[in-house]
Design goal:
By secondary structure, this protein is of the alpha+beta class. The chain contains 14 helices and 18 strands. It has a 6-stranded mixed β-sheet, with helices on both faces. A 4-stranded antiparallel β-sheet has the order 11-13-9-14, with helices on one face.
Length: 451
Amino acid sequence: MDAQTYFLQNLDAFIKELGAIVSFSSISTDPAFKQNVIDAAKWVQNKLLSLGFETKVIETSSNPIILGRHIANPNAKTVLLYGHYDVQPVAPVEDWSTPPFTLTQKDGKLFARGIMDNKGQFMMHVSALEALLKTQKELPVNISFIIEGDEETGSADLDSVIKDNTDFLKADVALISDGEMIGNDTPVIEASFRGVLNCEISLTGPKEDLHSGVFGGAIANPAYELSSLIAKLYDKDYRITIPQFYDDVEDITAEEKETLQNRTTRDEEFLELSGSKKLVGEKGYSKYEHTGLRPTLQVTGLQSGYTGVGFKNIVPSKAYAKFNFRLVANQNPQKIYDNFVKFINDNISDGVRYEISNPDMVPAVKINIDNDYMKKARAILAETYGKEPIINFVGGTLPVVIAIESYLHVPVLSVPLSQEDCGMHAPNERLLVDAFKRGVLFSLNFLTKLS
């Protein structure tokens, strides 16, 4: 029996194993879930050990990084596979139609937090390896693994771990699956990732919440002052107003524009997918240029005052906001942060005190998509999905790409294996059963034909 037949005949068992890994509430952004994160790391290590891998558990300042290695033949090619076992928070939990940490299968979909980002996708490669090991004496290639627990918080220690373990992780090519295809069946090769800058601001006005009838109108209200500050960050054309913000942004090339024309999703479909009312964005750019090749700034959290049932007539003493910049190639996150701090200092009301904290920075990266490994991946994607893959410019951030290229000096293939409508970072995260099947089949074909 070949590996593909074995996998398809045992599909239910492989899906059950997905249920085991997604059952861990491994939310790396919340210290309350620390033990769950550690338990997920142990599960990953034990899974690799069960497949005959040598493993190393690297303790970091935050969560463990699991390294794995299986040498089938010292003269064979070595593929480095990457994944992460940490997940996003589930809030608002009331918007989930199924329990977030219990795998639920219905209507051809698998629902659970992490089923797409990223437990389900790295388990596609693990499943392919298991099917190969069950049906033949040895793997056709050597395998190295990096599976981390801090991708959702910026991968702070990943760079140093890769730098310190170059011999253990030595490879010929790296394969990463951590994103979306186009629609349900159009494969994608990712050519770039935007960088990120996250930070928080807190404003303090009076020493405590005050009666609005006694003090309202006579003292600065932090909620209003923060809202006023945020309103100044964009002009009427949705262009970011921070001085020097666009100084290092390269123009979108004619080749990139031509590539994006292959993205045929109509505006109406894009809006339906998001559940939004209308498209917005920087004037003169398409929706895919906005989301992949132009820098953006989002307010990702905003809080002040009383938000419970009924009304509490106060002047709130504090206001908070969280900001997320997505940056493009050549933009320096530290420079953007410094200019943002100056912007706040120049525009904040002198009626409040403020503090900016927790800056988290990762630069943007472009991937070389013109190499022999990429050509082979393209051919196998076309064979597996029946369509030629489309080149995509990713709006998100993947710090591991920079570290792999910097210290291991191998080409990186970024090939997402989940469908587009997946609920990534949202309630009801989902993975099509068919996407899981074809993802495993792609991995089987790639690992086999690479030899």
